Amino acid sequence: MHTDQSIVAGPIDGGPRLTYEEGQEYAPDDPWGLECLELAEDGTFTYRRRRVGQLVYTRVGAIGMDRSQAIFADLARSSFPEVPAHLSPPGPSMVSISMAPDRTVSLYRKFGMGLDGYREAITELTAIVSEAREASDPPTRSDTADES
Question: 146: exposed, middle or buried (C-beta count within 10 Å: 0-12, 13-18, 19+)?
């Protein structure tokens, strides 16, 4: 998982935030590349999509505070940032969740869907990423293919 240093999680106006990443920036079979969602507890977010070394889309928006706080509550009742040992195949099936200070977990999405708290958080975070993605233009050829 690649983490762009400009989106490392930390407090926004004193409140907690998290960074959720899914996809792979350089994987030729991942049409969206690396998608990063930075979410504050108050519901504000920044969505970024990186593809082959370039930032191809950014969106700033908001979801309801209740929806955001539910995600933080799901992670609080999970074992975050700990997960049981599990096999992690390479590719876009991995997700990463980070919160300051230095609390990060990377896990195989399917494995995470079997863990209380993680299942709900990953489901909701993935839905927000999908909503932000759908608000963007469809991927262009440069978004989906390395033309070298």
Answer: exposed
**Where in 9-148 does DSSP place strands (E)?**
17-22, 34-40, 44-51, 54-62, 94-99, 103-108
Alpha-carbon distance 75 to 87, whole Å? Answer: 21
Task: Provide the residue count of the chain.
Answer: 148
Q: What global pTM score does this model have?
A: 0.81
Select the more confidently predicted residue: 110 or 30. Answer: 110
According to DSSP, the residues that pair with 123 across neighbouring strands are: none
CA torsion, ordered 147, 27, 57, 55, to nearest 10 deg: -80
CB within 8 Å of 132: residues ≥ 6 apart: 37, 45, 47, 59, 61
Most distant pair of Cα atoms in the chain: their distance = 46
CA separation, residue 102 to residues 6, 13, 42, 136, 138 (Å): 15, 18, 21, 31, 34
Alpha carbons within 13 angstroms on the beta-carbon side of residue 71 total 30
53-69 per-position pLDDT tens digit: 999 999 999 999 999 99
Distance CA 22, CA 2 (A): 10
- Which pLDDT belongs to residue 101? 78
